[in-house]
What we know:
- The chain is mainly beta.
- It is built from one helix and 26 strands.
- The protein has two domains: 9-173, Porin (Beta Barrel); 213-369, Porin, CATH 2.40.160.
- The protein is elongated.
Amino acid sequence: MSGFFQSHAVEVDIKDASNATCLYANWMMRFLITYESNTSDYKTTTLNLSSGVTHDGSVCGNDTQAALVAVQFGEGHSWSINFTKTNETSQGDLITFTYNTNDTAVFPDAKRKGPVSVVVKDPTHPVQLNNVYVCHNADFIEAENVTQIFWNVTLQPFVQNGTVSKKESRCRADTPTSAPTVLPTTANVTTVSTTTLSPAPTTSPKPVENPDTGNYSLKSGNKTCLLATVGLQLNVSQDKPLLININPKTTIADGACGNTTATLKLNDGNSTLISFTFVVKNTSASVQKFYLKEVNVTLLSRLNGSVISSADNHNFSKWDAFLGSSYMCRKEQTLDISEDIQVHTFNLRIQPFLVEANKFATAQECPADSDLNFLIPIAVGMALGFLIILVFISYLIGRRKSRTGYQSV
């Protein structure tokens, strides 16, 4: 026998044959999914739990069988995790998330139709058998084109004596005084998030300096397939203007390389997600170029993983260079993502295709850099001309003084 309840969170209480609790889980989660549209563009959508959640297939587990939490929601979406145990600890094993692109409310223009599954190893450390795992702060798992976000987690597989333990094993992100965060009920409705959901944070001080430059790369197998060097700054204009510098030391690069499409995803501290999509175009029968086509920005709450703001622009035609070369622009550039969000780039160099020997190819410079390179020799020439004029004037003055002294003698 089992019982299932849902309010703002998912709560699964699995009972054994004697009607005693053998597995308990209470948590909140949402998913950020990048998918290919009918026009071969890549878009990022947000999938939240809908109201009609079931837990078919969840089992208690024992010494020889894994425990399993499995939930189904929305139009053909599901999520599950299985747990194994030793004499002293339990640990999550595999997390399986399946989303259905036939759900037109979430994927209105998906090119690929049907269920898509993503399987990833649970990164959580083992927990003592008689302890309940608690994590109020947001935790993130990224795999392939999906970011899974969890918060307000209370979990105990293999419950002993039918009672959930009062001994807690807390995640690293929590502090002893952390308290659960309750989001608005609208967070539990499956929606496509493309607009601001809540006010922007106001506690971050406005940076007065340019962002640090980060070096990022992607690999396909053992070979580097994308190289990027860039300093990034976000300008968010909501209740109050806010500048956010992306910190390369806390930023993780992910993404995918292809022959005609490449995507670089940057995750700064699980609070700022930026993705850049590059495509190849034929400029003539024998000449190909790449360019930046899409940028997606998502700002997340550090406390609970809720989406503060999300915006994308799929209509860029910037940073173009010949295929096999790199694009470089040292000057500041601005990408307008939406009316409220801009991305500023500094010291940019990017090569999303045909990387050889882990090095950038010859760079094509942006017009601003080219103008700078043109102006530098002009400025140097003018300075040298001015210096020559000063020397000549000094010479004339010195000669006149010498002649005047000779005549007075």
